[in-house]
Design goal:
323 residues, alpha/beta, 6-stranded parallel sheet, 3-stranded mixed sheet, 11 helices, globular
Length: 323
């Protein structure tokens, strides 16, 4: 994280989605970056109960009680398939939940800085040009998850016109220990771990392997969010910033790297159920703005990330067999 004499250091931080994959990594990262900050996850808000961001009254009450100086809004339906399976819930959480948070801030903590976590998925069809996209690329979402995130960006941007202090970040694919098998890397790792444990035949089921994506380690993403907080006051209001590596990696390359670490031979077999109806051949982010404005760049090699994901899958499989 960049340091400077005029870097902002918050006293009170509200982290929504603290119980999720990224939240579990982000909370200790924020504690290390801002050791004097009081960091409250939504699991600790509202009388020590989980805070449902779709419950407007609960959100307003929590923000009024905490009066945070920074809110990092991670809470959301993050898996593309999960969003598509329950559109009403996806809209309620990803759009209306974000609006609830923002309007509660305007009402009860107007000086609070809101870091809204969107997604590189919002560019969607714009990736068909084949180039790495920067923040000026048109939003052209192609799945329900991306549509809800793009809609939230627009809604919060309108609230920025009413005084909301807002920074929008668009992270690209990121992974690490603790991520659900709804995402491709832990899905591969989980299958490998079950095969190694003798719980599945030595065949890994896969979807399309040719698409290329921009992959990051979750720890690098957390470092970017911490840098966003530190530099928040020097950025233009309602600024959008890509968080990406700028490197295209084929899904098949991820699979091959994981299989190279497997303890037994494994056959690869395509599963039609894992093929998505809308597929972009190459989706890569241009993150030069993050480097310029935040002093951030990814530092953790992909090989190290994949080792960590597979180790976590093996540990989870081992623990599941205890007792």
């Amino acid at each position: 994280m960049p340091t400077s004499g005029d870097a902002f250091s918050p006293g009170r931080v509200l982290l929504t989605g603290a119980e999720g994959f990224v939240g579990g990594h982000l909370r200790p990262a924020l504690a290390a970056a801002f050791p004097d900050a009081e960091i409250t996850g939504t699991g600790l808000a509202a009388a020590n109960r989980r805070l449902d961001v779709t419950d407007r009254d609960a959100v307003f009450g929590a923000v009024a009680a905490l009066r945070p100086q920074v809110c990092l809004h991670l809470a959301g339906i993050a898996a593309i398939d999960s969003a598509g399976a329950d559109p009403g819930r996806a809209w309620a959480v990803n759009l209306h939940g974000a609006i609830n948070i923002a309007e509660a801030i305007l009402a009860h903590a107007p000086d609070c800085r809101l870091l809204f976590v969107s997604s590189g998925e919002v560019y969607g069809g714009s990736f068909r040009a084949g180039a790495a996209l920067d923040e000026t690329a048109a939003l052209h979402p192609l799945n329900l998850y991306a549509v809800t995130k793009a809609a939230a960006e627009l809604a919060l941007g309108a609230l920025a016109g009413r005084g909301l202090r807002l920074l929008r970040v668009r992270p690209f694919n990121h992974t690490g220990p603790g991520q659900s098998e709804a995402f491709v890397t832990p899905a591969f790792a989980g299958q490998i771990a079950r095969i190694e444990a003798g719980l599945a035949p030595p065949v890994i089921q896969v979807g399309a392997l040719t698409p290329e994506r921009d992959f990051l380690d979750v720890r690098d993403v957390c470092a970017a969010y911490a840098a966003c907080i530190a530099r928040f006051d020097s950025l233009a209001n309602n600024q959008a910033i890509n968080i990406g590596s700028g490197r295209a990696v084929a899904i098949g390359e991820i699979l091959r790297a994981l299989l190279a670490q497997a303890h037994c031979p494994i056959e690869v077999r395509e599963d039609p159920a894992r093929l998505r109806p809308v597929e972009i051949a190459r989706a890569v982010g241009d993150a030069r703005l993050a480097r310029r404005l935040l002093g951030w760049e990814p530092r953790i090699p992909l090989e190290e990330t994949l080792c960590g994901v597979l180790a976590a899958a093996r540990l989870r499989q081992s623990l599941s067999g205890i007792g």
